[in-house]
Write a structure and sequence with these properties.
By secondary structure, the protein is of the alpha/beta class. It has ten helices and ten strands. Helix 1 packs across helix 2. InterPro entries: Aldo-Keto_reductase, NAD(P)_OxRdtase_dom_sf, NADP_OxRdtase_dom.
């Protein structure tokens, strides 16, 4: 029901560096031109800035998208999770106001509140759907077991999880569960937070607010060890006439027909590279070479710091 590749809009809120409304508008306009129909945002991305930007663009342009947003994370004064009906309803109403809508096509629980039964949460979401506030229900960073329990209450349209050549945890059950239930597997960070591109980020340039600054994979000696591997992958992509970003996203699409990658970018030029993956055909030789260059488990360091890792469910 959406294009093969969506657009992750977390970067509109500034976690990877400053941006402008004009730059974001240009990216959204190019997304529309390229046939990217699905936008993914959340209430915490820039404390509402991402949603406001999308809402302002749609109001000005008249372009329509299939929009997903999320709720359930509270960052201040300390990071915690709240999946109560009161909080979810309040968050959704705020998101709809920022987006300039009365309805959002997909609404995720951004992180599961561990002590609250998922059955209770699904009943809340089902009521919101019945009321016409949301079109479909999604869950983010959950285990296959949670998806199974949730599915018993109401169909789950999408499960979002980080997935790329350097983050393969969903291979250990989650993708299979999505395929079993007919649930879309929405893969965020398919280009490894910028590493699997032709513009490899340098941690020395990260602002203090950059999400990656605390990620162990971007801290020495892990960063240099990861860089050595990834440079070989990027060279292979260029030698075969493809951008590293498109090749990395094409690999995700190759892994399962349930996948909808949502690379995040704030520039139209980067989005053009990402979308090219939809038409890329990978041969058996391509796959063999990619797996040799970036074998499963190659990444040094955890994907999240201890603080960042408090919300995603661990199931292996």
């Amino acid at each position: 029901m959406v294009g093969a590749i969506g657009l992750g809009c977390m970067s509109f809120g500034g976690p990877y560096g400053p941006t402008t409304e004009a730059e974001c508008f240009r990216t959204l306009a190019r997304a529309h031109d390229l046939g990217v129909t699905h936008l993914d945002t959340a209430n915490i991305y820039g404390n509402g800035v991402s949603e406001q930007t999308i809402g302002a663009y749609i109001a000005r342009s008249g372009h329509e998208f299939v929009i997903a947003t999320k709720a359930g994370i509270i960052n201040q004064p300390v990071r915690r999770y709240d999946n109560s009906e009161a909080h979810i309803r309040s968050s959704l109403e705020d998101s709809l106001r920022r987006l300039g809508r009365e309805h959002v096509e997909l609404f995720y629980i951004h992180r599961r509140e561990a002590d609250r039964p998922i059955e209770e949460v699904m009943e809340t979401l089902a009521r919101l759907k019945q009321e016409g506030k949301i079109g479909a229900i999604g869950l983010s960073e959950v285990s296959p077991g949670t998806l199974e329990r949730a599915q018993a209450i109401h169909p789950v349209a999408a499960v979002q999880s980080e997935y790329s050549l350097w983050t393969r945890l969903p291979d250990l059950g989650l993708i299979r569960a999505c395929e079993t239930y007919g649930t879309a597997f929405v893969a965020f960070s398919p280009v490894a937070r910028g590493m699997l591109t032709g513009r490899i980020p340098d941690p020395r340039d990260f602002a203090d607010t950059d999400f990656r600054k605390a990620s162990p994979r971007f801290i020495e000696p892990n960063y240099s060890l990861n860089l050595k591997r990834i440079q070989a992958f990027n060279a292979f992509a260029r030698d075969t006439g493809r951008s590293p970003a498109a090749l990395a996203i094409a690999w995700v699409l190759h892994r399962t027909g349930a996948a909808i990658p949502i690379p995040g970018t704030r520039t139209a030029e980067h989005l053009e590279e990402d979308v090219a993956a939809a038409d890329m055909v990978l041969t058996a030789s391509d796959i063999a070479t990619i797996e040799e260059l970036l074998p499963v488990g190659f990444a040094h360091g955890d994907r999240y710091s201890d603080r960042q890792a408090s919300g995603p469910e661990r199931y292996c």
